[in-house]
Amino acid sequence: QVQLVESGGGLVRAGASLRLSCSGSGRAFLSYFVGWFRQAPGKKREFVGFTNGGGWMTQYADSVKGRFTISRDNNKNTVYLQMNTLKPEDTAEYYCVASDVISTQANMYTFWGQGTQVIVSS
Predict the structure, then answer these.
(1) CA-to-CA separations, 1 to 4, 39, 54, 55, 77, in angstroms, rounded
(2) How far is the C-alpha of 113 from the C-alpha of 119, rounded, in Å?
(3) 7 or 27, which is more confident?
(4) pLDDT-based confidence at 87, cuts 50/70/90?
(5) pLDDT grade, residue 59 (50/70/90)?
(6) Which residues have CB under 8 Å from 27's CB, separation 6+?
(7) 53 exposed, middle or buried (CB, 10 Å; 0-12, 13-18, 19+)?
(8) DSSP state letter for 63
(9) What is the band of 26 on the pLDDT scale with cuts at 50, 70, 90?
(10) How many CB atoms lie within 10 A of CB 81?
């Protein structure tokens, strides 16, 4: 079993930066793909990005590429989502996810955190 807890959400102005953290428990967390999805009100859940167990491989959605960076510190059992140059359209609930398979599809991720809200004002 893997448990995920997100933190770091909040209200910021457009152009600002924010860093989300995902703390994972369970031995498997260290080897799992860990990613982020987001869901804005009234919209479908959207893939943001993921990293592999070692943290040396990442993949991002086109909508965040160049602005968001995922990293992980396995000594701290934590994965980070650094979000720069935030836009109002980045406003959403952000979820940390984990899986033993590589995927950009939400239904392939077995473990989900409770979510953390990010609001970007214009």
Answers:
(1) 10, 24, 19, 20, 14
(2) 18
(3) 7
(4) very high
(5) very high
(6) none
(7) middle
(8) T
(9) confident
(10) 27
Q: How many other CB atoms sit within 10 Å of the CB of residue 70?
A: 23
Q: To which residue do tokens 């599809």 refer?
A: 105
**Chain position carrying tokens 């009100």:** 41
- pLDDT at site 42: 94
Q: What is the Cα Rg of the chain in Å?
A: 13
User: At 23, which amino acid appears?
Assistant: S
Strands 92-99 and 33-39: antiparallel
Which pair of structure tokens corresponds to residue 40? 């804005």
- Name the nearest CA neighbour of 72 among 116, 20, 109: 20
Q: Burial-class residue 44 by CB neighbours within 10 Å (0-12, 13-18, 19+).
A: exposed
**Which residues, including other chains, have CB under 8 Å from residue 43's CB and lie 6 or more apart?**
92
Residue in the block written with tokens 């239904």: 107
pLDDT at 1 over 90: no
The better pLDDT of the pair 1, 64 is held by 64
